[in-house]
Amino acid sequence: MNEQIPPKWLAWARRVEAIAEAGLHYSDNEYDLERYRQLRQVAAEIVAEHTTLPQEEVLAHFELTAGYATPKVDVRAAVIEQGKILMVRERIDGGWSLPGGWADVDDMPGNAAERETFEEAGYQVKAERLVGVYDANRLAEFRFHHAFKLVFLCSMNGGQATTSYETSDVGWFAQDEIPQPFSGTRIGQRHIDDCFAAYQDPARPTIFD
To answer: Half-sphere exposure of residue 69, counting CA atoms within 13 Å on the CB side?
Structure first.
């Protein structure tokens, strides 16, 4: 599983940012609002001090997630046909992943996985089962945003392999032929193994962290 524990500085930064966002969301006193803005600035300084990211960029990301701080949601589609799983090569880094991405506001999770598969791979699919809910930050390099990853087992409804502005290749791979490298934090070997296990055993319970 290669589970990792977030470094203390990242846990502190996330906590300070969460307090700041909650205060900015619920407070209406200008004195308090200014103090919460300063807290958000401190959180950005912590992240910038321990990464290569400019403080202004970190702060801009924090400001995009105004409101009560909660984890972001990443959805992935596992489409398996004749023992092979659908994967896409991401243009951003040349690595391979399951089709997917951030869930949009007002989008149901299963629908988001279906939409992302069509947009990134050209196939029309139907989300049938939830393979697992994962703490994305414990399986790969850490980001200052906390994220949950939802992986859905999907059935094929039609379409054909088609790349997009986000993907440069689309392919089908057996479990012992999974291409490397994976694309950043988008997917890991644990997710692939769980997808094949769920496909092979319809009674297998949903995995969760």
So the answer is: 20
Question: Are 87 and 171 spatial neighbours (Cβ–Cβ below 8 Å)?
Answer: yes
- C-alpha 192/C-alpha 76 separation (Å) is 11
Answer for the pair 196, 172: CB distance below 8 angstroms, yes or no.
no
pTM of the model: 0.73
Cα–Cα nearest to 142, from 194, 106, 185: 185
Residues 131-158 have pLDDT tens digits of: 999 988 765 554 556 789 999 999 999 9
Instruction: Report the alpha-carbon angle 39-42-45, nearest 5.
Output: 155
Q: Which residues of 48-64 are buried (b: 16+ CB within 10 A; e: fewer)?
A: beebebeeeebbebbee
DSSP string computed for 33-96: HHHHHHHHHHHHHHHHHHSSS-HHHHHHHHHHT-SS---EEEEEEEEEETTEEEEEEETTTS-E
CA-based nearest residue to 5, from 134, 151, 142, 173: 142
Check: CB of residue 75 under 8 Å from CB of residue 150. Answer: yes
Q: What is the dihedral of CA 160, 130, 7, 15, to 10 degrees?
A: 110
Question: Among 72, 71, 181, 79, which residue's Cα sits nearest to residue 120?
Answer: 79
